[in-house]
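Input (structure):
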């Protein structure tokens, strides 16, 4: 049910993401304005993301998801009205992005923690990779359809279809039986500040989590700004229209889908896979910066997408498997916080670089940062690794050894 709902909803989300960036670029003819749009979308997460993670460990995640998905549907409907009425005030679009970003601050940590409840910890790495494959399969479909719709009937149709797509995921979430979830009792903390502090302290003192999140901070800030640079790449580097933009985004998504399939085939989370994927991600972006033809750019973007998903899925799995169940919402929310809260700075940086040197400058900076972080990760090894695996698990033999600490207990 989760996958069926997400298949429809994520397709609509990628429709909206592509249409929204193209609409702002079309209204302003400014790469910096697209960067400001990204700032407005991710700035609320920088303020509220940690609070959303703490609340994910207190509130029913299934109900939070239903409420936030409904609110996101309203945002999409509002964008459809704005586009249909030909409102040319960019601040209106930016304002809706701020509201959407605020909702995401509460939606994303609960969605991250819900994955553990759906499958349990033993199957978590595979579930994360399969979820990435779903997300990136829709990344192929959504932008490609958006390019056609923008060129034929306009951007309003993209926003309207996204609003309708949320019905599928809301119905799917409502139909799930809580009795089948892999839930652990939620611990009540005296205050949100204490709850947030516990999550931050655990992340700081657990080397695998601390290293992964530090690397992700740099990579997310400098290297993951495709919502800003791809429209500029399509319009000004390749001198194309919305169809070219849709094609490039779909090619990147196709590569990301392939990377998710590769990651899903791995039995356990792997530091080696993470570092190789990160180095490849940087090298592929450097290759994009050198291309000036659609074929060359598409090939390099496909490789970028493959390595992007392998890196992000591996990072996500290592963080979640290194975290006890009662901290899942907070530390998982911290992962999302690092991934998204860097968006305001990253979007402005990518917009500034693209404004002055075109999209190739942004790809050069992103590629160099990713390669540097891969090198730093090699120097910081070894990391203590979680033992979570995918696939069938044998029942341990009974022995007279002392009882192990219960799963989810806080380590000393």
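Output (sequence):
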């Amino acid at each position: 049910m989760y996958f069926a709902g997400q298949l429809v909803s994520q397709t609509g989300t990628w429709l909206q993401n592509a249409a929204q960036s193209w609409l702002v670029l079309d209204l302003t003819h400014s790469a910096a304005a697209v960067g400001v749009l990204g700032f407005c979308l991710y700035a609320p997460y920088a303020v509220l993301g940690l609070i959303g993670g703490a609340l994910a460990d207190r509130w029913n995640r299934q109900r939070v998801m239903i409420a936030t998905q409904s609110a996101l549907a309203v945002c999409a409907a509002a964008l459809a009205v704005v586009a249909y009425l030909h409102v040319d005030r960019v601040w209106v679009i930016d304002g809706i992005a701020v509201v959407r970003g605020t909702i995401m601050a509460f939606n994303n940590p609960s969605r991250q923690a819900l994955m553990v409840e759906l499958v349990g910890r033993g199957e978590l790495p595979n579930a994360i990779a399969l979820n990435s494959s779903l997300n990136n399969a829709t990344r192929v479909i959504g932008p490609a359809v958006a390019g056609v719709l923008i060129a034929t009937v306009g951007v309003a149709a993209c926003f309207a279809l996204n609003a309708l797509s949320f019905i599928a995921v809301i119905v799917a979430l409502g139909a799930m039986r809580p009795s089948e979830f892999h839930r652990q009792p939620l611990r009540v903390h005296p205050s949100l500040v204490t709850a947030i502090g516990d999550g931050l302290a655990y992340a700081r003192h657990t080397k695998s989590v601390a290293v992964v999140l530090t690397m992700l901070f740099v990579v997310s800030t400098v290297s993951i700004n495709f919502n800003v640079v791809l429209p500029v790449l399509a319009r000004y580097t390749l001198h194309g229209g919305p169809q070219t933009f849709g094609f490039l985004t779909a090619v990147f998504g196709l590569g990301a889908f392939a990377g998710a399939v590769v990651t899903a085939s791995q039995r356990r989370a792997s530091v080696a896979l993470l570092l190789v994927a990160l180095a490849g991600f940087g090298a592929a972006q450097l290759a994009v910066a050198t291309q000036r033809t659609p074929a060359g750019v598409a090939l390099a973007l496909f490789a970028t997408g493959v390595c992007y998903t392998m890196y992000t899925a591996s990072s996500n799995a290592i963080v979640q498997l290194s975290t006890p169940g009662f901290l899942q919402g907070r530390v998982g929310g911290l992962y999302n916080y690092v991934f998204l809260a860097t968006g305001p700075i990253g979007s402005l940086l990518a917009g500034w670089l693209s404004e002055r040197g075109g999209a190739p400058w942004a790809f050069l900076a992103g590629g160099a940062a990713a390669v540097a972080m891969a090198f730093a990760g090699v120097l910081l090894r070894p990391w203590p690794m979680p033992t979570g695996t995918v696939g069938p698990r044998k029942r341990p033999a009974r022995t007279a050894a002392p009882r192990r600490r219960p799963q989810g207990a806080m380590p000393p």
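Notes: The chain has a mean pLDDT of 85. The CA atoms of residues 75 and 99 lie 8 Å apart.
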